[in-house]
Amino acid sequence: MTPYLSVIVSAYNEEDNLHRGSLELVADYLKHQKFTWELILVNDGSTDTTLAQLNQFAKSHPHSRVINNPHMGKAAGIISGALAAKGELILFTDMDQATPISEFDKFLPLLESGSDIVIGSRSGRPNAPLFRKILAFGNIILRNLILRLPVKDSQCGFKAFNRNAAQKIFTIMNQVHPPKVVSGPAVNPGFDVELLYLGRKLGFKISEVRVSWRHQESRRVSFIKDAIAGLTGLLTVRYRSLTHAYK
């Protein structure tokens, strides 16, 4: 049976979150829904026990499966999961569940009433450090100046697409970002912006919903590096658009 919802979770060295039961929270939510679903777990070349834990989880949870990728970064993991998804709706969410999977309840009415893409918005980012809030505010200003993309929060890792939008957007993303093995932490702050820019460029209806969110500490965040990477990502998206790379 074709699932109604595909949920994608990309994982790179996530053994701590797995030990805390983050995937159990996702599975418990899905098991109580009336619609059919699948849970796609993408291992991004983890070097700890993540893959073993994902495989064990999938064995004990029906409708769950694991995609084992070499280390290519979170963006590549989401792309590969989206292209493998069979659902009519496709949602990606973070392993740490900073935005709880239950927030999808707010998305479903919009997706069923005509929105092609629905994204979470973390208004104010409560409890986040000041440097994260500064990065977010700067990103909003630059995003509007460079891409004219009118969303409040492009970076929330909680986004849903109908199948038509997902197939078109992620097929182009896979062409623009061909799979490439990398070393070390790989964060692509331009990924979410590019997804939304493509969605708008292709004429899809985008809705934004305020979601519950709690700050999670990450060792993969650097103010200077992320600020530079964010600006570079915006300029790269603009350049690709001007050079007709999005076909």
TrEMBL record:
Domain named Glycosyltransferase 2-like: residues: 6-170
Swiss-Prot/TrEMBL GO biological process terms: protein N-linked glycosylation
InterPro entries: Glyco_trans_2-like, Nucleotide-diphossugar_trans
Source species, domain of life: Bacteria
A family per Pfam: Glycos_transf_2
Protein's recorded name: Glycosyltransferase 2-like domain-containing protein
Species assigned in the record: Candidatus Amesbacteria bacterium RIFCSPLOWO2_01_FULL_48_25
